[in-house]
Structure formats: structure tokens, C-alpha cells
Amino acid sequence: MILDELAAFARKRVAADQAKTPLADIKAQAKAMPKGDFRFEKALAGKDCAFICEVKKASPSSTRYLTLKPSRAAMRTPVRTAFPA
């Protein structure tokens, strides 16, 4: 089967990558990287942030969707993010 061939190829590729660079080296490189300033997270936590969301009942390959339309009151209500300010 094609999936078996893809999985076998992926296993070989991962093994080759692991032989080139050990996991401990990759972890050390990651820890040595400069820390980010989280600009995207800060932008999401800002007061001027807005979201356009689409909720579907099924995957795009499915033909059945659930369309949700927010009420006018919901559209005027500010949205709180999961990120602390």
C-alpha cells in the first residue's frame, strides 16, 4: 500500500536525520537561541484585536457544513483572548 511505503520512507528519513544531528545537540541549539519578544502574542492580547472565525461541523472534504451566524449583539461585544495582557 502507498501508506506503508510513505511510512517506511519517513522512518528512513528520520533515522538519517537523527544520525546526522543527535537530539541532544538539537535541544542545546534550541536552548541557545535568543528569546523572542512574542510580538504576535502581544498583538492578540491588545485591545484593538479582532477575529474573524469560521466554525464547521465537518472537514472541508465533507459536503455537510454547519454555518453559524453571530447575532448583532455578539458582533458588537469585545472578545477576550486566552493570553493575559
Descriptive notes:
The structure is a single chain. The protein has 85 residues and is an all-alpha fold. Helices cover 48% and strands 0% of the residues. It is flat.
Helix content: 40-55%
How many helices?
4
Q: Main beta sheet: strand number and arrangement?
A: none
Uncertain ranges: none
Compact overview of the structure:
The protein has helices spanning 2-20, 23-32, 39-45, 72-76. With 85 residues, the protein is mostly helical. The radius of gyration is 22 Å and the shape is flat.
Structure characteristics:
mainly alpha; 4 helices; 48% helix
What's the structural blueprint in terms of helices and strands?
Blueprint: H1 2-20, H2 23-32, H3 39-45, H4 72-76
